[in-house]
Write a structure and sequence with these properties.
The protein has 126 residues and is mainly β. The protein has one domain. The strands form two sheets. It has a five-stranded antiparallel β-sheet with strand order 4-3-6-1-7, with no helix packed on it. 25% of the residues are buried.
Amino acid sequence: MAVSDIQLTVITTGANQTVTVNRYFSNAHTINWGDGSPTVNHTAGATKTYTGAGTYTITLALTGSATRWTFHGGMTLVPKIWTTASNVYVSYMPALSDYFGNNATNVGNNFFFGFNANGSLTSLPS
């Protein structure tokens, strides 16, 4: 895991539970679903169906030359309407001043706009 990665932990209690991750960030990044399935380029909302109960770590990783997460907002990161997993939470986020926005003092537009509005995230790291 790179220090700039964002990690979500997903807890499923049975087969065929889903997690949807919207394209909340505007820069290029990938999703590793944490179950051995292929990592995918995240160019639009993506839904994963987990085949069994368990705890999975989803990793969002910057790609290309991007060094900071930037926002386009307008949607929830993990929407409740398309997520049936029992518990989804952000288990790791890089330091805001080091890895988010335009620079350490300018987070840019849409900073956490709608990040968890009507969403499935149950907690953030301290």
